[in-house]
Fold this sequence. Notes:
This protein is of the alpha+beta class. It has five helices and three strands, in the order ααβββααα.
Amino acid sequence: MTDGLQGAGGLQSDEVDAEEFERLVIAELDLLPDEMMDGLENVSFTVEDLPEDGTRDLLGLYHGVSLTHRDNYGFGELPDRITLYRLPLLTASRDLEELKDQIHVTLVHEIGHFYGLDDDALHELGWG
Length: 128
């Protein structure tokens, strides 16, 4: 059962269910350049409907220690995690093509955080 939630002008949650959304995320990951993906060691990608606090303005989140801040990182560490939030991404998208673009930008943005780029640098690069 879907909740049918929708933002102003956004896609409805029953238009892109959780399984379809995960397929879209995987497809967008496959489109990213090898140079970007090759350095992603010990990183998992997850999809959730909403952040724990229920906010609807967060599209994605990087959980971990960026490469530029690692000292004794190595064996036995839990994987870093990049999470994309389905309902906020649907709300931010008017149609399927815009959703794909939003997923792509969000993935690049969060991967940028893994590599140590802050929000200002990501905005300057057009990924903020």
